[in-house]
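Researcher: We are triaging several targets before committing to wet-lab work. For this one, the compound of interest is zinc ion. I'm pasting the protein sequence and the ligand SMILES. What I need is the predicted three-dimensional arrangement of the protein with the ligand bound, expressed as structure tokens, so it can go straight into our comparison scripts without reformatting.
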Amino acid sequence: MILNINDLLMKFPIFDTHTHFFPPRMFGRIWQYFEANYWPIHQKGPIDSLVNELVSIHDVCNFIVLNYAHKGGIANSLNNWTHSFCSSVGDGTQAIPFGTIHPDDVNCELETERIFRELNFAGMKLQLMVTSFYLSDERLLPLYQQIADYDRILLVHIGTGPDHSNFHPSKTLECPYVGVQYLRPFLERFPELKVIVPHLGANEFHEMWTLIEEYPNLYFDTAMVGVKNNPAFDDPLATIENHELEELSDRLMFGSDYPNIPYPYQNAISSWLDRGMSTSFYQKLFYQNAQRLFRTYS
Ligand SMILES: [Zn+2]
């Protein structure tokens, strides 16, 4: 049976585990950077209208709010902004904050303590593709233990993708800080830490996915992959068989990367529904897995 979105919403609302919201001026600069280096942003606008679109048009009931400090000295103010932004989203919708840190920050451990103890953030995001440090940076090691001790979550862009081959075919994304070779030793060192790898582990899908057998606290979000007619790059899941994805079904969570995407939000949802996966797969993907992982927030 192929579900349509209305069938799905009768059963569950949408839990989006990967959205980005930044302070307005920073958002503008990020969009400029994206459009020069990655892809055009389909929907830009005031933050209120972006949230309204997510909640009222797409029926998203919970969303994870991510941002990242690309240099030292700004994490504290970004975390404060995220806290007040998430607190301002109401009317039955839950905006769930993730914090940011940069190893050049003074007092990384104090800031981490603050965002969990005082601000009650759900986790921490690291975007290694743009922040130029390694996951194994010694200055961050105490933080990982703090995240585990608080039973919060680390979302880390450790994969080599997604790329932007359709818009900038001549630019290669060679970043020394990412790759599955860094994830395995990290998980060995912190097996109790809950880790989300975005973009389904792109571009090293199978190498990433095999890690779930050994590491029960490893999850993936689907941001920007599995989207048909994605103008940025050809869908890398087009050649992956449904049964391979069904095997991951307890560890997958829907994420959109909204609003930093070059297509309408709905395309991501409808592309997944068009794959003809099982009903239980969709229930887990769009809501249940995230609801379980973030049960104290949703
Ligand atoms: Zn993202």
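Researcher: Any quick observations?
Model: The first helix runs from residue 5 to 11.
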